[in-house]
Please model this.
Amino acid sequence: MSKATGSFRDSVDRMFTHAAGLMDLPAGLEEKIRVCNSTYTVRFGVRLRGEIHTFTGYRSVHSEHMEPVKGGIRYSLDVSQDEVEALAALMSYKCALVEVPFGGSKGGLCIDPRAWNEDELEKITRRFTYELSRRNLISPSQNVPAPDMGTGEREMAWMADAYKRLHPDDINAKACVTGKPRTAGGIEGRVEATGRGVQYALREFFRHDDVMKKAGLEGTLAGKKIVVQGLGNVGYHAAQFLSVEDKAQIVTVIERDGAISNPQGINIDALRGHVLATGGVRGFAGGSYREEGLVGLEDECDILIPAAVESVIHTGNVDRIKCKLIIEAANGPVTADADDVLKRRGVVIIPDMYANAGGVTVSYFEWVKNLSQISLGRLERRHEEARARMLIEELERISADTGTRFTLAKGFKEEFLIGADELELVRSGLDDTMREAFGKMKEVWMTHRQVDDMRTAAYVVAIRRISNVYGSLGL
Ligand code: NAD
Model:
């Protein structure tokens, strides 16, 4: 059971305040950046199964120093004002850290999505969208939601369609939400983006010997033992890419109904198939099952990836956490108290605002695509291919004319002659974003005398950027 003390919002504020205290901010600006600008609560009724059901939803706007504000919509029974405000604050810092030109926002609906069928969820989502739209809390220029826990492409498509019906003359209507299916204006690579970003963040971490040393790690990702909590959108993609492409070993996966462990590495695709078919990990043949899943967080491993909910590492279990590195794929999985303990013990944490920024980064690409009304690479792809072909043909001509023999590596020509498609461009932009942000965090971490962890470094970079925007606005 959770032993989290203080709320999620308190934890985020404490981490923020610690970092802001190391900076020389103009009087009053710390408070202005920290506070949540507004939170809207809505209660609405939908007639389902012969009676009216009342739902409670929130949309919180943390900072409008840049607009639109951006952040996911979560469907969960645990959604509360405190939670959406904490998540909205993290969105402001995250966007600033990865230089995505948005302010921070977050929304949620108190609902167990598994308790309703698809038609019912559609009705509820469309009604929620109507309520948000009436208050400009969904709009391409002011507030752009995205998927989060319990929501995905399907819900975003319903929201985009509901918005379009309310605003038929808005040519940019599609840009009112991101994370839509490709057929409804989405972008290649958005579904995988957050998990892919976790992989790129780890790859970048493993390129730096000095930071690896801080965690007591060496070598490459290959063979590293990893524990993952949550095999949803983020956890699945991160685990799948790390195991298949980087040859890491996923030794434990924790889900709602328990944990599966296999010291030889779990076949993630097979486990995901099992979860989708049965609703949980119980009964999976490719590993041993434990009903008390949360204990899996304490398994011996190199890297722990919490990718489910907040506050799962707290004062009640932190002393038993045995990994060397935690990468926060979920938002807020480590409480501020536990963070202090882990820091003292030398466990390195790659913080949420960086680790899971892949989602908002690719959402930004989708938003730009929607506003420009053209898919990425459409104008230049064939032109790029023609120039590559010219180069190869010229080399071949010179070779024939001069009698100089050269041999291209196997497969090089075929690969070189293919121009980048949307997915490749998205992945390239995401990789660049993750590497750039890592560099900025590392610079602060390594050079600022009082910054003793990566989270504080991330906050310092983010707060500095937000403060610069306020400065240029005359605040
Ligand atoms: P999801 O709903 O797709 O998956 C969540 C998974 O966690 C599910 O499989 C669920 O069964 C499992 N889970 C829930 N509670 C659990 C518990 N107590 N113990 C073990 N497993 C549990 O959600 P997601 O989109 O993958 O989001 C996961 C986390 O990543 C959240 O913190 C979210 O805010 C964060 N995040 C998501 C995105 C995104 O693009 N989807 C972007 C940034 C951050």
Observations:
- Residues 193-358 form a domain with the Rossmann fold fold (CATH 3.40.50.720).
- The mean pLDDT is 96.
- The two ends are 44 Å apart (CA to CA).
- The pocket of nicotinamide-adenine-dinucleotide is lined by residues 147-150, 194, 229-235, 254-256, 307-309, 329-331, 356, 359 (CB under 6 Å).
